[in-house]
Design a protein that fits this description.
Layout lengths: L25 H11 L1 E2 L5 E2 L39 H9 L1 H13 L4 H14 L5 H9 L10 H10 L2 H14 L6 H14 L4
Antiparallel strand pairs: 1-2
Helix pairs in contact: 3-4, 3-6, 5-7, 6-7, 6-8
Length: about 200
Amino acid sequence: MNPVGIATTSAAPIASPVMHQGACDRHQCFNADLQTVELRAAGRLRSPFAATAVRIRHSGAQRYLPLTSARNSHVANEPRPAADFAFFRQPLKQNMALIGRWASAAKAGSQSDAWSQFVNDITERFFKGSRRQRVMDALILSIDILPPSHRADALACLLADGEEGMAAAEEFWEYIGLDRIPDADKDRVRSLIRQYGIGA
């Protein structure tokens, strides 16, 4: 008699079909993975394979590297946050005609057609679809590209242009400061700063 034939169904182990072995609830699998490999904040890897694992960071004093992107890498020496507007600053630096238009518009004043046209043109060219605040931020952070004799005019235009210009000057004045203003215009700029309450 075949001994297997007399075995009862309750005594024989029941194997799960092969097709169900790979089935795993996502959350259970994820938890299992977390239990198998634990990543520690110090950068060491602890797992059943720790003997052959490669440490990705030495323990001890932590070193923090500056976060840069490929887009900004060529302007790493520029002060933050001006480097964030490199897409505007770099072409502006190389375009003397555009700098001349900005200087002329600033001299004409914030209520002039020249100023409105200049702002509209750079918005369409560099900031299409952006809020006006972004345009004003870029202008205030690029004032140092203008010839020194036109910087006070540009600041006056931005301050008188509306809430966006004032907000840009308020937020970023510390990156500009009087050091970038020629001595002949410093008293005028101090007066503007007091008038509009910048840095107060």
